[in-house]
Amino acid sequence: MNIIDTQLVGVKIIEPKIWRDERGFFMETFREDWFRAHIADCQLVQHNHSCSQQNVLRGLHFQWGKPQAKLIRVVSGSVLDVAVDLRQDSPTFGQWISIVLSAENARQLWLPEGFAHGFYAQENHTQLIYQCSDYYHPESERILLWSDSTLAIDWQLHGAPIISEKDKHGKTWQEIEKF
Predict the structure, then answer these.
(1) What digits encode the pLDDT tens for the residues 147-164?
(2) Does the annotation mark 61 as catalytic?
């Protein structure tokens, strides 16, 4: 697997080696010993799978008090995946990145604890799988407003985004807790 550092400290893009032939392809998507040696020495305890229609925007989510690191990949369709650094002691505090994750490019995104995460589905029936370092804890869930003007995230929208009621009422950058 190839590791690409991003401009956000600790956030990495992982490109798996893919073997393709006339039958299709094979790739290794996770190997714990390699992951612990090259990415993070942590255990991924919960695996989640979501499916979204085109123009669905989810996020920006994080957990306060029970933070989660996440390993994210798309198995069908494509997303613009966004991460915001909430770690006050980080040199990239308050900065964000976006990356296209798709079934075609097979890239994965590693987010250590202390990041808000969201994505915008660019195709119908986009399926995203993410593994987390801690369990979902509803009382710890927080939402950073996706459209916060301080962050000015370029979501590369292709129409009006479809957003849950919960995500529409996220807090602004000034209102949320930081790590």
Answers:
(1) 999 999 999 999 899 999
(2) yes
Domain of residue 127: give its range: 2-168
Q: Which of 85, 146, 141 is nearest to 114 (CA)?
A: 85
Q: Active site residue: 61, 125, 158, 169, which one? A: 61
- 147, 152, 154, 160: CA torsion to nearest 10: 30
Domain count, the chain: 1
Q: Which is the catalytic residue, given 38, 125, 130, 135? A: 130
94 closest CA partner among 109, 108, 106, 84: 84
The CATH number of the domain holding residue 37 is 2.60.120.10
Query: Is 137 among the catalytic positions?
Result: no
pLDDT in tens, 95-147: 999 999 999 999 999 999 999 999 999 999 999 999 999 999 999 999 999 99
Residue whose C-alpha is closest to residue 72's, from 100, 34, 53: 100
